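Q: Protein A?
A:
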Amino acid sequence: MPRVKGGKTLLKRRHNLLKRVKGFNFGRSTKTRQAREAFYHAGVHAFNHRKDKKGDFRRLWTIKINAAVRPFALSYSKFIDLLKKKNIELDRKILADLAENNPETFSKIISAVK
């Protein structure tokens, strides 16, 4: 069986890997072994943080709604409780958007629940 040298294939593999880690710090963007390990770890973090992002946004919406209802002498928890009692089914994402971009509409919602 003839000897096979992996020149072209190996160079292409290394080139593609280094293209994907462009911008990483220190040797992670230039050294193949460090680049491979950094690339694998980056994939793990990307997967985990896609899940975390949902919770991050929900926390942000809570903060925006709370800040918007404070001038009306309400807290976030009391506001959400009043919404549920009045059967107003707006989710937190929509409420946060209204509070930030359409304060007059948001104030109408508050007056409806009070």
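Q: Protein B?
A:
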Amino acid sequence: MATNRQPDSATAGTDAPVLGFVESIALMALLISLTALSIDTMLPALPRIGRDLGVQYANDIQLIVSLLILGLSFGQLVFGPLSDSMGRKPVLLAGGVLFLIGCTFSLFSSSFAVMLFGRILQGIGLAGPRSVVLAIVRDQYQGRTMARMMSTIMSVFIVVPAFAPTIGQGILMFAGWRSIFGMLLFLALIALTWFALRQPETLSPQHRIPFSAKEIAKAFAEVCRNRVALGYTVVAGFVMGAFFGYLTSAQQIFTEVYGLENLFPLYFGILALALGCAAFLNSRIVMRFGMRKLADRAVKTLAGLSTFYLVVVYAMGGFSPLWMLMICLMIAFFCIGILFGNLNAIAMAPLGHIAGTGSAVVGSLSTFITVPLAILIGMSYNGTALPMIGGFAILSLLSILIMRWADEKTDVLVAEIT
């Protein structure tokens, strides 16, 4: 069994002790939660933002979500390698400052173009916490212990955004949608202050790598040559693509198809809690069953369920009772909750020697795959849930094939990731 600390840990020689397990989880979860909060609190406000900023086509308002994810994918290519060169702490703080600037642009936007520019900046800035948190975890943990840490963080940060649409709707009722960005500014300031005061640097100077485009290209090449890293990165992109396809169209499906405008945050929260419960359970059982076995069973369940439901809904003319949709999505999200932490941990397992750049490449590549898939699914919304369910079915089936390819003829860290 892997130990909690790497024998040659990059933390060796740092001035301050590593945070305790509980405080570290809380801080890392809050930092990563900024991404989910920046998406989920916006969902109830999308129609009103569209009206106020003169958006002509209803599906275009989904770009408020999609372009933040696009900015995230670009930013990870920079912040991950920078964290290998300059250290984890200053890079995360720099990303946080850029996020604050992006929030300010969106807060005071007078046109849809300015809003989208602010969202791209927010996404780029959020790449700092996204990349650096993964690298900090990889600095200090490995194997199944790393998966447990990541799954615990995921379970915490998913539970909070489960209530984010309710928070967003409450702010919308009493203060307007611009105040949602004010709330994000406030939370980001708390998280960054906490991180600056309490988190020690986990990458000692002797383990730092000079920043260069050549090193990024070499990391890309290494990921592409490694079946485990490449295969599970692509699968992570497919799974996130299906999930973000749901996120971009969820508000329209629940409000337009099922008439749940006021109850949308409740139903969204129930589904998000299913995701969080799965991530929490995974953190408890991954040490016993292993990442690969759990990921394999979860993706097969997701593929079988979504394919069956797609056929049923198509036979019903594109519509199904709300209870049927909720049962299907709860099971699907439970599977995704199992997959989130495990897929990233498996992809990162062969890349411990380039943790920062490796997490940047894995995160950026998977997000580059996610964005066009999410936009395609969201823009395909036609007044039914068929495009969303079709996205789950097709992408999970493809994921099974890619996982089989990735697991063939590989001897990469078998002891850690089986």
